[in-house]
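Intended use. Records such as the Palmitoyltransferase entry shown here are meant for training and evaluating sequence-to-structure methods. They are not intended to support clinical decisions.
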Amino acid sequence: MIVGWSYYAYVIQLCIGSITDIGEKVVCVVAYHLFFIMFAWAYWKTIFTMPMNPSKEFHLSYTDREILEREERGETQQEVLRRIAKDLPIYTRTLSGAIRYCDRCQLVKPDRCHHCSVCDKCILKMDHHCPWVNNCVGFSNYKFFLLFLAYSLLYCLFIAATDLQYFIKFWTNGLPDTQAKFHIMFLFFSAAMFSISLASLFGYHCWLVSKNRSTLEAFRAPAFRHGADKNGFSLGFGKNLRQVFGDEKKYWLLPVFSSLGDGCSFPTCLVNQDPEQPSTPAGLNTTVKSVGDASPFPAKPLRESQSRLLINGQSWTESDGGHEEDKHGTSNPAMVIENET
Ligand SMILES: [Zn+2]
Ligand SMILES: [Zn+2]
């Protein structure tokens, strides 16, 4: 409703009804529509892109579910889960070192995946559930969400900037006494107010992208086998940016899907130090196909993009703490399946 009203107030009341100079009128209407189209496009994509859920291999088979339900001891349940997780590209654990498991969806949670209590589903690389778009912001629409913030900020700044002189006229009684003057006044107020809140939210998310953290991870650092590490998924500024926006610059500013990976697993500099997990896949020299050109959610580009993102990166040398944690899981009787929501 606010967007609809802003269109009416700006185009009809301000541009057509109040601006007298023809040149200014045309420039304002044309430029406004450019901002409006980009904003509406990104907004639309953020709202209507379905959040992605973990793929089949993360779900427990019927027999495993039965075993898990039969077992009462957390320790044995963990053994079952560890056996399942062995073949999955999972590097994160709960803070106590247990396999992350979702009780409601009955699946082993992929890295960075969280259960959304509003959607009642596990959402890949869940960022947060956003009431402004009535949708979960996660792997499938995070780029759209960022562009939505950017374009709505530009939209508001453009309106505020071009409306400013008429807003001043309103207070100096320079406007004719029609209903347009109230639209002009409220338009400036709301554009300025939204600009301030959007700028701070957009700034925060730019910082998150540069650090490769989701909002949830900013509040609680993901735990790896060597412990919680808030920089666990960070690969350096350039690669962090490319993970969200993709390799092809021409797609960066458009709300089309171009994020790298499949959302189920993410490159981490700690990967190669994890003895339980398969190492970085071979075939680093294979020709990399553009993610932007592929289907919206490419089935298997992750391996390639993962390798690509890691190939130039220096692996961190992990201190020798890896073995202890291996036993940690089995010897801790207090260990239970932990559910994070
Ligand atoms: Zn779940
Ligand atoms: Zn949600």
